[in-house]
Amino acid sequence: MRLRYKPWAKDKLNEYPQYSIQQPEQYKGRWEEVFGNDHPIHIEVGTGKGQFVTGMAKANPHINYIGIEVYESVIVSALDRIIEADLPNVKLLSVDANDLSKFFAKNDVERVYLNFSDPWPKVRHEKRRLTYQSFLKIYEDLLIDGGEIHFKTDNQGLFEYSLMSFSKYGMLLKYISLDLHQSDYEGNIMTEYEEKFSAKGQRIYRCEVKFQN
Ligand code: SAM
């Protein structure tokens, strides 16, 4: 993603603590206090400008969503969407996915979404891919038993790599589509990247995998 640095982003995120969670460490194991209910929590890691989490939150008012994005200059666009839609069931966290265990305890989350994650095609960058083994361990440690990852990408190489990574980790493949937009899958909410790449005629790969614990 081309990143335009926005020096004011941090201040704006701080102005809306009802949407952009400050000091998230304090909510580890207590996220129901943030949402004011104990509905299931689904997180999107690498949420970008937030079109997906916002769309999902509108479509599923009884699920709580948390969009996680490392760059404040990017997630601030997600904040604008949430302010405009005034949604109570979506929050944002501007943190690195490597640090998620500081903010979430086992069973805090029911599902992890990974959408159009950066492919990091060079072998020496494998550890940065959000489907690398160390990230799977992080997700497993915050999910409920049998929790799921739902993954979409336009990148065939990353999709193949990720299927191998899920398999090596002992995960169960529940659903796969090699051409999501031509499939019978219903209720798809498009991300920004998905709109961009599918408009160019690129096919979208999607899978659902489950931890076997
Ligand atoms: N999910 C959005 C979509 O489909 O339109 C954005 C996709 S964009 C290619 C990937 C996003 O993941 C970027 O905004 C990037 O900053 C974020 N990201 C990459 N690595 C991350 C990490 N370790 N922790 C949090 N966010 C990360």
UniProtKB/TrEMBL annotation:
Species of the source: Oikeobacillus pervagus
Binding, substrate: 122, 154, 191-194
InterPro entries the UniProt entry points to: SAM-dependent_MTases_sf, tRNA_(Gua-N-7)_MeTrfase_Trmb, tRNA_methyltr_TrmB_bact
EC assignment: 2.1.1.33
Protein's pathway: tRNA modification; N(7)-methylguanine-tRNA biosynthesis
Binding locations of S-adenosyl-L-methionine: 44, 69, 96, 118
Cited function: Catalyzes the formation of N(7)-methylguanine at position 46 (m7G46) in tRNA.
Highest taxon listed in the record's lineage: Bacteria
UniProt region (Interaction with RNA), positions on chain: 124-129
SUPFAM superfamilies in alphabetical order: S-adenosyl-L-methionine-dependent methyltransferases
Assigned protein family: Belongs to the class I-like SAM-binding methyltransferase superfamily. TrmB family.
Key words of the record: Methyltransferase, S-adenosyl-L-methionine, Transferase, tRNA processing
GO molecular function: tRNA (guanine(46)-N7)-methyltransferase activity
Full protein name: tRNA (guanine-N(7)-)-methyltransferase
HAMAP family: tRNA_methyltr_TrmB (MF_01057)
Record's catalysed reaction(s): guanosine(46) in tRNA + S-adenosyl-L-methionine = N(7)-methylguanosine(46) in tRNA + S-adenosyl-L-homocysteine
One GO term describing the cellular component: tRNA methyltransferase complex
